[in-house]
Amino acid sequence: MELLDVNTLGFLVFSGFMAAFIDSVVGGGGLISIPALMWTGLPPLTVLGTNKVAAVMGAFTSFVTFVRSGKVDGWLIRRLFPISLLGSAIGVLTVRQIPSEFLRPLVVIMLILVLIYSVRRKNWGTDSTYSGMSMRLLMLSGLVAFAFGFYDGFFGPGTGSFLLFAFLMVGFDFLGAAANARALNFASNIAAAVLFSYFGLVDMAHAIPMGLAMIVGAWCGAHVALSKGAGYVRPLFIIMTTVLIGKQLLELLR
């Protein structure tokens, strides 16, 4: 494993911390970490694999932090976690055969709808109205977990926003939705990280320092969210969804 120069190392550590701080709450950290890794000159597929290996370290930290806080619904996540894991694995295997770019226009439309809905319902997610799962809702949740797991392995941008929105739709408040979304996002990150590593598409010299910084960033981000509550998560969710829309639109116009 080749050692990095001090400037590159410092850049990756800073980028990893900032990416994980945001990602631990509402997702979207890839907007920072992926361009940072591309700047170092790694090949595109290696950038994706290296990012997933680093991101899974931060995702694990925020997941554990939220579990310890009691904000994660253990009964629900135990059932959805393996489904998200499977979906992501199939997504990674699929993206090696089919280009993922055709999804971009659909993702932009979906993010815009999520943003409009979230902005219009001003008090949405302030209080939790979730009272449990019917069998029909559980089956639908399983399909959603698989779909977004697949999407995360196949393409990725906006996964955290979509998952958070899905948990809001079943009645969680913003903080509870963020906690449970991070649990499923951790599952999809695990599968992607393992498979990218298996296919030799990870540069550990870049992944390890960025991942260690992400552990710290995720811990800080999750604790800030827990201390400030839904009033902090909601505006951050709206800001990051808006940024994601802008990023995807720019990519479409190129």
Describe the structure.
Helix 3 packs antiparallel against helix 8, helix 3 runs parallel beside helix 9 and helix 4 runs parallel beside helix 6. The model has no long low-confidence stretch (mean pLDDT 89). The longest helix has 26 residues. The chain is mostly helical and 254 residues long. The protein has ten helices and no strands. It is globular.
Portion in strands: under 5%
Order of helices and strands: HHHHHHHHHH
**Number of helical segments?**
10
Oligomer state of the chains in this structure: single chain
Biggest pleated sheet: none
The N- and C-terminal alpha carbons lie at a distance of 36 Å
Radius of gyration: 17 Å
Contiguous uncertain segments of 5+ residues: none
Shape: globular
Task: Tell how many strands the DSSP assignment holds.
Answer: 0
If you average the pLDDT, what whole number results? 89
Helix content: over 70%
> Helix/strand-derived class?
mainly alpha
Keywords:
254 residues; mainly alpha; 79% helix
Short recap of the structure:
The chain is mostly helical and 254 residues long. It contains ten helices and no strands.
